Amino acid sequence: MDKGTLLRRFVHALAGLGPVYYLVPRQLLPGLSRETALVILLLGVLVFESLRIQLSIRILGLRAYEYSRLSGFAWAFLGIATVVIFFPLYIAVPCLIAMALMDPLAGEMRTLGSSRLPDIILPVSFAIFTVSFLIFAVPPATALPLAIVGSVISWLSERFKFKSIDDDYLMSVLPAVAVMALRMIL
CA 37, CA 85: separation in Å to the nearest integer? Predict the structure, then answer.
């Protein structure tokens, strides 16, 4: 595995730490909430990305197509920020852990040469969602449909590639939206 791929895998693993946000005090400083601090950090990432693109700065770990657009790293941070700001912990945890583990796993399996191998992420994602919901004391009768919806949406978000939005964003945000919507119904 080359250094760039290794760095991408490492950054993905760090995305699983996104739920640590919920442990940060709501008020960091007088007048500075954790949400505001996260939005400021996100704006900093986006300003850096803008400069990187405008100045054609090359960064280890970026794929060739990311040189002229928002990087997967930035998309992942945007997804993490969206999920932790707008969704409760019990939804954020499985969405972020699934994205952090499943996307690199699918990428590594693709290197093995089979287009069907990445489909193994569906049952693994289902396990992550199910265990997370049960740990957060979601009743089993509710946890199962939520886990099915979350894992299928996460899998589809990785499986189908979109040119304008990176799967690092979609794999965390779309399952969160779907799970929240279903939770409101159940």
Answer: 11
